[in-house]
Amino acid sequence: MKNLLIFLILSYLLFTINSTAISESSNEKEIANQNYLKIGVLFPLSGKFQDIGKSFLKAIQLALYDISNENIKIYPKDSKGNALDAYKAAKEFEELGIDIVIGPIFYESLERLGEISNITFISLTNKTQKMPKNTIAFGINIKSQIDILKKYFDEIKITRAILLSPKSKFINQNKIISDGYINFYRTYNYDTNPKKITGEIEKITKYRERKKELERRIKKLEKSDEYKDKKELEILEQRHTLGKVNFDTVVVLDFGERLKSVLTSFMFSDISSKKVNFFTFNQWFDESLFAENALENLHFPSIDYKNLKKFEKNYLKKFKKNPNKVSILAYDALGLIYFCWKNNNAEFKSDQLYNKNGFKGLQGEFLIKKNFSKQKLKIYKIQNKKFIKVY
User: Fold this and answer.
1) What is the Cα–Cα distance from 279 to 270, expressed in whole angstroms?
2) Is the CB of residue 373 less than 8 Å from the CB of residue 138?
3) Phi and psi at residue 147, to the nearest 5°
4) Hey, how many other C-beta atoms are within 10 angstroms of the C-beta on 363?
5) Res. 171 pLDDT band, cuts 50 70 90
6) 194-205 and 207-222 helices cross at what angle (nearest 10)?
7) Which domains are present in the chain?
8) Phi and psi at residue 293, in whole multiples of 5°?
9) Beta strands 359-361 and 364-369: pairing type?
10) What angle do CA 102, 106, 110 make, to 5 degrees?
11) Is residue 33 pLDDT above 80, yes or no?
12) Span 329-384, pLDDT tens digits
């Protein structure tokens, strides 16, 4: 019964996405004889990741609507979020003569796709290590984020940046350092236990030493009757610590609640974002960050915010629900394939994806090099419950 339900869902999606309902058995010869652009779509359309997959699929439907060309034919298949089912679906694409596929979304689903050498996969993953030769990582990768961060650091003359990352097998700090070309003044790994984070940040910021320095200075000033000492005493009594830290910038390689815990710990350690720059990665304009005072002035690299808002508005208008923000990449992936096909007399060649002049999508400008997309990102910061572009 479950398999029948999945089949019915996929059949419906195939019907609604393509403006004319194509029967693979009866119309395949007709399609082969015409200048149709056949694109496979490989997303998790059932199981625990189905909501993500369906949001990405709707983003492709929106792109089809905007392009408005009936010669584009989409063939969605269910990866179920795992490598085996992704491989089985890819074999079906191969039988259909499809040579370009958008998907899978997750890196783990790529494991066996290198075996199907006559298909190019535009995966939405942001991981770039050990990619199959026939797969392009189209996600917002750490290389692109580090590149724009390096340029911005040079612009505002950052000299003593420290890098913080959790002790986690999923985050490779050494990879960031070796690939990023940023010379970090110090690097630290912190415990992922929220109860331990504050203590570790206190050590990094030398909070106890600065607090004792304040106490010593106050005791000295209390013994003085001079006017200037009394005025200084009034000021210091409003403070929690005295003395500067030996860094001007903090880069936190984390997200979600742990990121909030780390930045809150800096605030409790009396490190103001007005005096020290704070940066992070992999942010998609999460407005829940506005609720945390410690995140004021937090900087991060990302895609074009105005275009993302336009995409969300159009998606909501068409489908009456909000999209997964990352699905904007699926929209761009379809636009990229269509652009290459249209500019080559209605014939798609994978070599066109590696145009040295690059491309421009809703995400902004990007260039596909080797097995990943190198994006030209922007730098934003959180200020007064808004995302402000600063670079």
Assistant:
1) 17
2) yes
3) -60, -50
4) 23
5) low
6) 60
7) 2-139+305-375 (3.40.50.2300), 142-206+245-302 (3.40.50.2300)
8) -60, -30
9) antiparallel
10) 75
11) no
12) 999 999 999 999 999 999 999 999 999 999 999 999 999 998 999 999 999 999 99
Mean pLDDT of the chain: 89
DSSP category for residue 372: E
- Reference 262, options 368, 22, 93, 271; nearest CA is 271
388: phi then psi, degrees, rounded to nearest 5: -110, 130
CA-wise closest residue to 250 among 304, 200, 290, 205: 205
Q: List, in order, residues 6 or more apart from 21 with CB less than 8 Å away.
A: 14, 15
Please state the separation of Cα 58 from the chain's center in Å. 19
Token pair belonging to 357: 């002049």
| Spatial distance between the Cα atoms of 161 and 276, rounded to a whole number of angstroms | 10
Categorise residue 115: left if φ over 0, alpha if ψ from -120 to 50, beta otherwise.
alpha
Mark out the alpha helices in 206-350 (DSSP H runs). Answer: 207-222, 227-236, 256-268, 305-319, 328-342
CA distance 23 to 21: 7
Give the DSSP letter string of 77-118.
EE-TTSHHHHHHHHHHHHHTT--EEE--SSGGGGTTGGG-TT
Longest Cα–Cα distance of the chain, Å, equals: 99
- Burial class, 36, CB count within 10 angstroms (exposed 0-12 / middle 13-18 / buried 19+): middle
277-280 vs 72-78, strand pairing mode: unpaired
Question: Hey, how many other C-beta atoms are within 10 angstroms of the C-beta on 1?
Answer: 4
Tokens 């097995």 belong to which residue? 371
DSSP label of 139: S
Total length of the chain = 391
CA distance 165 to 167: 7
